[in-house]
Amino acid sequence: MFLHLAIFAGFTLSAEFINSFQILSVVVGLLMASVFCQELFLLHFHSTDHVGLEGHYHWLLQLIVFASVMAALAATCCQTSLPAALVLSNSVVFQGCCFMNMGFMLWVPKFVPKGITIGYCSS
């Protein structure tokens, strides 16, 4: 996945540097949509065994990534569409918030001392 993202970023950066971004914007949009499709594919198969609250969290993340794929395709087809651009930018922000929340939930409990219970009773 990271190689695909590096190819997308390198192609976009090179298109920007040679001042032909307007000509290659369709290719950049399709590469962006393919990066989101690969992310959705990996999330779907990673989330098959998650149940309960974590399963719902992964389902919500898949829904946000699917919105990113559709918005990237819509923004590629209709480059002057403000709603497509807004949905794309907001879905990318929501992805960042979801991943930041996941990192917060994974790392912060390691820093809480063992004797402290937060929000629940231990027996």
Automatic annotation (TrEMBL):
Pfam families: DUF716. InterPro entries: DUF716 (IPR006904). Keywords: Membrane, Transmembrane, Transmembrane helix. It is a multi-pass membrane protein. The keyword Membrane applies. One of its GO terms (cellular component) is membrane. The chain crosses the membrane at residues 24-45, 57-76, 82-108. It is found in: Membrane. PANTHER family: OS02G0167775 PROTEIN, PROTEINASE INHIBITOR I4, SERPIN (DUF716)-RELATED. Belongs to the TMEM45 family. This is Uncharacterized protein. It comes from Rosa chinensis.
